[in-house]
Amino acid sequence: MAHSVAQEGSDVPTELVGSGWFWLHNAPKWHYFLANGNSLCGRWMTFGRAFEQGNDGSPDNCAACRKKLEKIKAKTALPETQPETPSQSRKGE
Ligand SMILES: [Zn+2]
Q: Which residues, 6+ apart, have CB-to-CB distance to 41 below 8 Å?
């Protein structure tokens, strides 16, 4: 159990602050909810606030929520420098 609540100042992307995984009693899986209470897969909503971070790869997680979360994290975690772009030019060779 590596769950903790997302907070500002942590390494959580800004749009994920206040969000996290949450298990509803009538849902078979954990779903990822944004701070507005809507799940990433769009099938659920909750007024709960006891969201948890971590365990993103758990088999108990909704697959649709997990994929969307991965996209958000990939999008917001872009490095300032792009290491795969070679900047070494060989002008004048
Ligand atoms: Zn879901």
A: 31, 32, 62, 64, 65, 68
Contacts of 8 (CB under 8 A, 6+ apart): 14, 17
Going from the Cα of 33 to the center of ligand 1, the distance in angstroms, rounded, reads 8
53 bridge partner residues: 4
Per-residue pLDDT of the chain (93 residues; tens, 9 = 90+): 455 655 555 677 788 889 999 999 888 999 999 999 999 999 999 988 789 999 999 999 999 999 999 999 888 766 666 556 666 666 665
Cα(72) to centroid of ligand 1, in Å?
A: 14
Tell me the two tokens of residue 45: 């909503």
